[in-house]
Amino acid sequence: MSTHKPFFLAIFLFLPMLFTARFVQAQQTAPYDGSWESLQKMPVPAWFDDGKIGIFIHWGPYSAIGYRKGNRGYAEHVPKLMYRDPDHYFPILKQRWGAMPPEFGYKDILADFKAENWEPDAWAKLFAEVGFKYCVMTAEHHDGWANWDSDLTPWNAMDMGPKRDLVGDLGKALKKQGLKFAPSYHRERHQSFFAEKLYVVNATPLPMIAEEIKRAPEAASLYGPFGTTKAFVDDYVARWQEIQKKYQPDMLWVDDFPIYTRDGNNVRKGKARPEIQYFDDQVRGMITDFMNDGAARGADVYVNNKGGNRNWPAGVGCLEKDNLKLKVIGPKWQSCTTFGSSFGYLEGDKYKSIESVIHEMVEVISRNGNFLINIGPKSDGTIPQPQLDRLMAMKQWLAINGEAIYGSRYWKQSDQKEDQLAFTTNGKKLYAIKLAKPEASFVINGTAGWNQEKVQSVRLLGSDATVNFSMTPAGMKIDPPSDLGQSTHAWAFEIVTDENQHTPNVITLDEDEALKGTKKVDLDGNAAAEHPAVEPFVSAGAEAVVESFAKLDSFAKIPLPAASTCKVTANHPTKNDPLTSLTDGEVQNSFGPIFPNGIRSGAYKMDLGSIQPVTSVSSWSCRKSKTRGRQNLAIYGSDSDSDPGWKLSNFKLLGTVDTENSNEQFTAAAIRATEGNTLGKFRWIVWAVAPISDAGGGENTAFQELSVQTK
User: Fold this and answer.
1) Nearest alpha carbon to residue 373 among 345, 339, 325, 346
2) pLDDT at 620
3) What is the pTM of this model?
4) 126, containing H or E segment
5) Residue 619, phi then psi, degrees to nearest 5
6) Could you say which of 3.30.1490.110, 2.160.10.10, 3.40.50.720, 2.60.40.1180 is the CATH number of the domain covering 415-506?
7) What does the alpha-carbon distance between residue 185 and residue 606 come to, in Å, rounded to a whole number?
8) Cα 490 vs. chain centroid, distance in angstroms?
9) Which residues make beta-bridge pairs with 604?
10) How far, in Å, CA of 298 to CA of 143, rounded?
11) What are the pLDDT digits (tens) for 461-470?
12) Chain segment 533-547, per-residue pLDDT in tens
């Protein structure tokens, strides 16, 4: 332990008093008076509103584990999960480390977090080159480990593990590259992280944790304290004050506070137990002090407002949730999201396709959001190759299309679904970003009523080819050039007009209204069991085709193919016929593989073996038990080199099909490209059987055959 720690107790007792004195002074002289009403007036800093894209980093001792049961979900939660599921995790600990709790626990895994190959300057240079404008890195997660040189806890990166000030070193490197920095703070859940019950006020340690502490008393200050006591709250504030004083961050980023709406509390509606009211009061003072300190330094600092149940009143900071995708243009918001299923390092994680990452970024920004994309480095400080691949793809895309992103604002509408368009603006420029390859003419409906004089020029970013356009009663018609230039995955058309295109009054200001229809956050990162509802849709350059007949030899538009060697898997166990029957080139008068009753997320996935241009995706079903011939499904594709898993946000939606009820014995359905087009290049095709609407029960399609045609 370093020599500057003997005064640990004195500093610990002194900092809360120092904070109180500063807070009282701030109320008297600074811009923010300590009330929520005052904090609701904080402006959105230009660096945040213009920057649009930030990088999130989850890195800590949990990175040395790199595993989670099921190989999906938030691996950074394994420090608590391993004590909650000992039958699964303890044998793995025994195999990897030769011991398990209570002899060996999370406190001992810390030693394997060494950051021996970490180069902060290389990270900062990479982030700047990709195009990130700010960085959020975990200073402390729920596990109690401090990634900074702390005088308040011995469980810190300067005294143990890496024996380096990770927060300080990265902050210096980022500053040299001109990036803003936010050491993220997640300690609001620590008091029950290793407890018997999560998110309760009076938490008690898990029995195995209590035994570890009994054998190694020094572990008490890592795993505890337990419960939301005054001492815990004061320490919570003191730790942030230490980060603020040492590193002068540009943003106070904290995770959501589940205790605010659990265990009899509903803080924002005026219902709080005394301990939680004290917590809220002290955190309000902490935010006030941070904002006033920024003002005193001449720094434009900001705060996030995390959670489906927001931490703070509306307007205090930036609305934020994990993997947030507003369907509307909302008040300033941010989506903190991942390339895979985990925030912390997870070996063998299933990653989103590059195209889906680019599309998600564009869609978020078109709706007044910021895109905070996460990486989970390994414990040695290296970034896994699949994450690097996606960073490089973002770099390439932004180098071409950054004019449509940085400094942009939303338009009067965020998107146009029928042509897969998203919109941004910058002054008199409107950017129409095509999320499907622009191989045919399209009309921008929102420009209906414009005349020729309104438009000064149209160009495709990344291409020197001339873009022809014309004004029609339905709106501006753009004829994409044959040379689409350097861009991939999404193509931005810049339209220069005679007036400012930003339309401020279209925001859905009510945060509850803006959040409607967005996914519920699972605090432990468990994978969602349901497929999202999907509006009826067919991608541009494609059509849905349906045929129903009493006899198989009657099919003309969708004839039965020969047997296929492509492998089909399912996301739930099926019964009746084996999955291989879906590619045997036969359709019989039977059920075929079916999911049990109640499965509302049934899906089949075909591996084509390599990425290929796909022209048609088809399926055949048999009418059994009167209803089992109907096909009500959504079809997706992915160009991932490795299996992208079952999370449908990792895939591109190609179209939906509903054959509705038919009295015929056999039904065939297809999403196929129109003449001269393809559906795209894919390796993986998914038939998501249910649901494509919010209504109805489980899967009921008696699939007999699945087929994909390629060029």
Assistant:
1) 339
2) 87
3) 0.76
4) helix 120-130
5) -150, 150
6) 2.60.40.1180
7) 42
8) 19
9) 570, 687
10) 34
11) 999 999 999 9
12) 677 889 999 999 999
